[in-house]
Amino acid sequence: MTNGLSRHLRFFPARPVVLALAVLALVCGVSLRIYAQLPPEAGARFQQASEAMRQGNFEQAVAGFSSVTKQAPTFAEAHFNLGLAYEELGKPNEAIASLEKALALKPKLHGANLFLGVAHYKLNQLDAALVAIKKEAAAYPKDAGAFMWLGVVELAKDQPEEASEALDKAAKLAPNDVDILYHRGRAHLLVSKNSYGKMFTADPKSWRVHQVLAQANAEADHYPDAIAEYQEAIKLAPTQPGLHEELGSVYQNEQMPQEAAAAFQSELAIDPHNVLAKYKLGVLALEHGDGARAKELVEAALHEKPDLHHVDYFLGRAEMELGNDNSAADHLKRATTSETDPEFLQQSWYQFGIACRKLHRMDEAQQAMATFQRLKDEESDASQKRLKKFEVHKNGDTPLTAPNASSTPN
């Protein structure tokens, strides 16, 4: 196994603000009663050392907290902060000694086991890291950071299933934390990879194997290979629900509408309630100018799954094919407020403008076309900027900015 630091950790407290926040919380948590038990000089030194930590002066912080631990050897918070300062200086062994002393004095000191685990982790002492971080998570079950680090250590131990469980808990506690989401996704990806590997070993001729290979090819836009694998899967499991719908989707992406329609029809013969097959078959009908069939299928799909994407746009287009301009305008107007896909949003405004023209609502039509043109121009400008930026970096005209240090492992 490679060194745990190089594989998973840039350095937990690399951003001074992270430890500064920890120290701030600690200082706030030290009650006046505890301060009253300290020698006056020790209290003053503790405050000075804490301020040095906030300012990023870690050598000064080490000196200050060391002095406090000598003057007040039973003051757990001083040992804890001394451990944090050592962490910042890249001295994990010294950090471990100080953090263990803090825990001996106050076994449930918030954060101490977590930072102790991180220090062990940086030394690739994964078992010790796991023990410490598990204690933190047990003592503070609402601490998302503890569960994130628990997952990180499990990943370093090549235990993605356990890592996924810990990171799922972290994500529930902090659903928008990008670091947690990154590690959670990585853990689940490894679980999937391991599962597929076992599947290939258990039965390499299974239709599931062909399905997985087809899905991988489809995601990589290798549509001919995906089609071939889906066809092999269907030969082995011709009545398996879902396979024909997935094949139809690939045909649709490969611009093979007749084959796609046939696949969707086959899917509905097997599973009449397959919403995606109905919906996509309706979209194909619309592309061929069959508004009545398109409306029937899209509305049927919508009845079974009310949160389908782009429904108002497609129903509006279907109503236009049928000459129902008022209904078309209503659907397309709703699409202009509900669409989040830029391409569909543009087209919703364009089609709404056409519907308004047919209804002689010229002011609305003019406004809709103006909005369509504005969105199109904005997209074009954004594309040009992205292209220019890519060309500059490709030609080496300007150096790429180095990424900021992170408080979480890489």
Plain-language structure description:
This protein has 410 residues and is an all-alpha fold. It has 3 domains: 193 residues, Tetratricopeptide repeat domain (Serine Threonine Protein Phosphatase 5, Tetratricopeptide repeat); 91 residues, Tetratricopeptide repeat domain (Serine Threonine Protein Phosphatase 5, Tetratricopeptide repeat); 70 residues. Helices cover 77% and strands 0% of the residues. It contains 22 helices and no strands. The longest helix is centred in the C-terminal third of the chain and has 34 residues. The chain is elongated and about 90 Å long. The two termini are 16 Å apart.
CATH homologous superfamily annotation of the largest domain: Tetratricopeptide repeat domain
Helix content: over 70%
Helix tally?
A: 22
Q: What class, by secondary structure content?
A: mainly alpha
Low-confidence runs of at least 5 consecutive residues: 1-29, 398-410
